[in-house]
Amino acid sequence: MAIDIQPLHGEFAGEVSGIDLTRPLSREDVVAIDAGMDRYAVLVFHDQHFDDATQLAFSRNFGELEISSGGEMSKPEERRLAIELADISNLDRDNRLRAVDDKRRLNALGNRLWHSDASFRAVPAKYSLLSARVVPQAGGNTEFADMRAAYDVLDDATKAEIEDLVTEHSSAFSREQIGFPPVDFGNDNQDKLRPVRHRLVRTHPVTGRKSLYLSAHIGTIVGWPVPEARAFIRDLTEHATQPRFVHAHRWRQWDLVIWDNRTTMHRARRYDDLHDIRDLRRTTIRGDGLTVAQAA
Amino acid sequence: MSISIRPLHPSFVGEVTGVDLTRPLSREQVAAIESGMDQHAVLVFHDQPITDEQQCDFSRNFGELEVTLAGQMAKPEDRRFGDRLELGDISNLDAQNRLRAREDHRRMYALANQLWHSDASFRAIGAGYTLLHARIVPSRGGNTEFADMRAAYDALDDATKAEIDDLVTEHSIRFSREQLGFQVDSPGNEDKLRPVRHRLVLTHPVTGRKSLYLSSHIGGIVGWPVPEARAFIRDLAEHATQRQFVYAHEWRVNDLVMWDNRQVMHRARRFNDLQEVRDLRRTSIKGVGLTVEETAAAA
Fold first, then answer.
1. Could you tell me the pTM of the whole model?
2. Rg (Cα) of chain A, in Å, rounded?
């Protein structure tokens, strides 16, 4: 059965039907999904009854899996899931709700800022794939913003100003914004907090479209005073996340959503996480290479 | 000639005509402006060629003038207006009237005015009215935007209203600067940097209308973990500054704009400040009805 894609927000975000992702995919299916990703940047699949093994197997169709930074930075005995699966839940290892002042809960609040996954890595993420196993009764949406459309409508002066700008990203910067000090979760993680550099304007390798590579992980622009860089990045982010560029995904159990981190930002929305469970599991595909040469 | 006010936005902001601010005002004129402020929260006056002295005189009609924190923290030789601490220097000029350089410390400090805020909310008694007068304006950019915190409050759903009704926030000038990666250090002024508390929901002392008392100076909510408080305050500020609640003022020379910090937030917008002059002068009136105790009594 051929897959069908219905656009959800103009040329941004598509809803896919006609495929069971938990079974092995044909080469044609993978090509069709990749083409859908190039066009829509976000794809939504309903009723995909993944377990961890089938999610991992499906994800590998799109490239090499990345180890999640949350996993890397935690001790093995604290992990609820295999290290290739990012634990996007409010549960601890024993499947209990995390308490109000739990460090991992506070760290995860950084996901409520607009960001692009793993932009704090020199080789950042390509796709993220998020599978909904348990969803809360209300709230907890994920919102996506189209960085291609946001780039397209910038005026020519701004496009010229930003064309060659290089930004510095670290997960310490996004956490700093909400007053969460960069903590060492028990391992030696200082190297993972060191800022990496990326171009502010990226060109998609397949479509050739330009997009803004923005993220809450940005702490400055190379060559700019920090406060000026941050004020400017905030302005660009505000521009890029206007409602007309945003699609809000309301989760249903067994939804799978794939997005391209090279061309979108996303954020989680608030829900009653002290009382209600939200258990989402993420796999991440490594990107193709550096966006800019890194400082020595 | 009598004062007349024309609305510039569906929920707030009025344009005032029929008054000359270079002359002393009558009691009736002051009352008309105050009642305009209660209703519109922001008033715009065009073509008012007032001097510093006249701006201070006009401002005193509405209460006691505040001295500015930046003035208090600056060395006397760095102040462009000398001992006149009640005149806030909202410009990109140094004491010798030269454009400030890119890395200038005062320029970095002032960049936080591009974040949505309510003036002096970092004081136990924040500002009531602020009055800003335009002497020199850049050829483009540098707007001031205002957001209506009454309309933003009204548009919240009932669950959120109930959740925030009794929340108390902590404000410091340090928090707004920290957001831009700028550390405020002012030896001898530690008392002015210490966080102060305010209710998140204010009730206007005259109209009785509720509004959100938000500001980039907020660093926490009493009783909440800091990251949760900041994420929530960001969500509220995003709600409160949606386009339908915002008016953008495009400055002309000799505009005077006054606003009520208890009812609106505002922010400056970017301009080419390394090449062009923008010289605005600010006076502020000490607020009433702003402290946790006063607002608790009013509720």
1. 0.94
2. 18
pLDDT in tens, A136-157: 999 999 999 999 999 999 999 9
Residue pair B184/B216 in contact (Cβ under 8 Å)? The answer is: no
The count of C-alpha atoms lying within 13 angstroms of the C-alpha of B144, restricted to the half-sphere facing its C-beta, is: 28
Average model confidence (pLDDT) for chain A?
93
Nearest chain B residue to A270 by CA distance is B232
Chain A hits for B170, Cβ within 8 Å = none
Confidence check on the interface: ipTM exceeds 0.90, yes or no? yes
Burial of residue A132 (number of CB atoms within 10 Å: 0-12, 13-18, 19+)? buried
Element (H, E) at B286: strand B279-286
Chain A partners within 8 Å of B114 (Cβ): 231, 234-235
Task: Point out the residue among B182, B227, B270 whose CB comes nearest to the CB of A227.
Answer: B182
Has residue B186 got a pLDDT over 90?
no
Give tens-digit pLDDT for A100-121: 999 999 999 999 999 999 999 9
Chain A residues close to B108, C-beta within 8 Å: 225, 227-228
Plot region of A179 (φ>0 → left; ψ -120 to 50 → alpha; else → beta): left
All residues of chain A having their beta carbon less than 8 Å from the beta carbon of residue B229 are: 179
Residue B189 burial (C-beta neighbours within 10 Å; 0-12, 13-18, 19+): middle
Asked if B112's CB is within 8 angstroms of A227's CB, the reply is: yes
Contact across the interface for B227 and A106, Cβ inside 8 Å: yes
Q: What is the pLDDT of residues B257-290, one digit of tens each?
A: 999 999 999 999 999 999 999 999 999 999 876 6
